[in-house]
């Protein structure tokens, strides 16, 4: 009976996580690596997931940023799947979806309040926020995102940020208040600088890609 209840709870959590169909089967074991730099990225993501209880205590976050098509979302969803299997709660969303969800509550016929949506994103064990920097940057949008991330920061709840922006561009997009919170308490940034998986046949990936060093900042 307990095992059945556990499975049902995991199934409910998985549905609520809203992982896109393209990434629903992403795992650490099916992330292709053919260089030390990719192995370091994999190791950082796996370590974040496997040591999540310690990450949670520290309130740390993980930022995966850099070139498009390098597997950032794959690793983020691999983290999500690992935690969901362990009974944790996760939500995957893009910045645009998060902002749209908040603004949809402004409609007269909405059954949810803005607070309901913000608390949903604040309350899960892990929030994965993808496409940071895509059509984003207005002060109103930044304040809405700050409301979510500051709440998670104060409650020591980890966040995974996924973005094609690097360094200064990411900082300028998020603004100093959000960026400083994401970088605090031993948080990790992994920069992806190799070529896109989407541009090659994955079966020939080891010989078809050029790789550059990945920086991991702690």
Description:
The protein is α/β, with parallel strands linked by helices. The protein has a single domain (2-18, 26-217), classed as P-loop containing nucleotide triphosphate hydrolases (Rossmann fold). Helix content is 50%, strand content 13%. It contains ten helices and six strands. The protein has helices at 2-17, 36-50, 52-58, 72-85, 95-104, 114-123, 139-154, 167-174, 176-183, 205-208, and strands at residues 62-66, 90-94, 126-132, 159-163, 188-192, 216-217. The chain has a six-stranded mixed beta sheet, with helices on both faces. β3 (126-132), α7 (139-154) and β4 form a beta-alpha-beta unit. It starts with a helix and ends with a strand. 34% of the residues are buried. Mean pLDDT is 87; it is low at 201-218.
Outline:
The protein has 218 residues and is of the alpha/beta class.
Fold topology:
Layout: H1 2-17, H2 36-50, H3 52-58, E1 62-66, H4 72-85, E2 90-94, H5 95-104, H6 114-123, E3 126-132, H7 139-154, E4 159-163, H8 167-174, H9 176-183, E5 188-192, H10 205-208, E6 216-217
Parallel strand pairs: 1-4, 1-5, 2-3, 3-4
Antiparallel strand pairs: 5-6
CATH superfamily: P-loop containing nucleotide triphosphate hydrolases
CATH architecture: 3-Layer(aba) Sandwich
Question: N-to-C terminal Cα separation, in Å?
Answer: 43 Å
Please state how the strands of the largest beta sheet are arranged side by side. Answer: 2-3-4-1-5-6
Unreliable stretches (pLDDT < 50, length at least 5) are 201-218
SS-based structural class? alpha/beta
What is the quaternary state of this protein?
Answer: single chain
Overall morphology = globular
- Sheet of most strands: 6 strands, mixed
Order of helices and strands: HHHEHEHHEHEHHEHE
User: What is the CA-atom radius of gyration, in angstroms?
Assistant: 17 Å
Range of strand content: 5-15%
The total of helices stands at 10
* Mean pLDDT over the residues: 87
CATH class: Alpha Beta
Structural domains: how many: 1
Q: Could you tell me the number of beta strands?
A: 6
Q: Could you estimate the helical fraction of the residues in percent? A: 40-55%
CATH fold annotation: Rossmann fold
């Amino acid at each position: 009976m307990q095992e059945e209840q556990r499975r049902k709870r995991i199934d409910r959590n998985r549905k609520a996580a809203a992982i896109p169909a393209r990434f629903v089967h992403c795992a650490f074991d099916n992330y292709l690596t053919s260089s030390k730099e990719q192995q370091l990225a994999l190791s950082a993501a796996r370590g974040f997931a496997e040591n999540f209880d310690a990450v949670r205590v520290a309130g740390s976050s993980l930022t995966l940023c850099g070139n498009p098509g390098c597997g950032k979302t794959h690793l983020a969803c691999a983290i999500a799947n690992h935690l969901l299997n362990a009974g944790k709660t996760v939500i995957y969303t893009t910045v645009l979806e998060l902002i749209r969800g908040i603004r949809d509550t402004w409609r007269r016929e909405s059954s949810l309040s803005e607070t309901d949506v913000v608390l949903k994103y604040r309350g899960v064990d892990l929030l994965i926020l993808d496409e940071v920097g895509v059509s984003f940057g207005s002060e109103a949008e930044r304040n809405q995102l700050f409301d979510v991330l500051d709440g998670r920061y104060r409650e020591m709840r980890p966040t995974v940020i996924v973005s094609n922006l690097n360094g200064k561009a990411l900082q300028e997009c998020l603004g100093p208040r959000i960026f400083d919170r994401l970088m605090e308490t031993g948080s990790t940034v992994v920069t992806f600088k190799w070529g896109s998986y989407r541009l090659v046949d994955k079966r020939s990936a080891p010989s078809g890609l050029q790789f550059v060093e990945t920086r991991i900042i702690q």
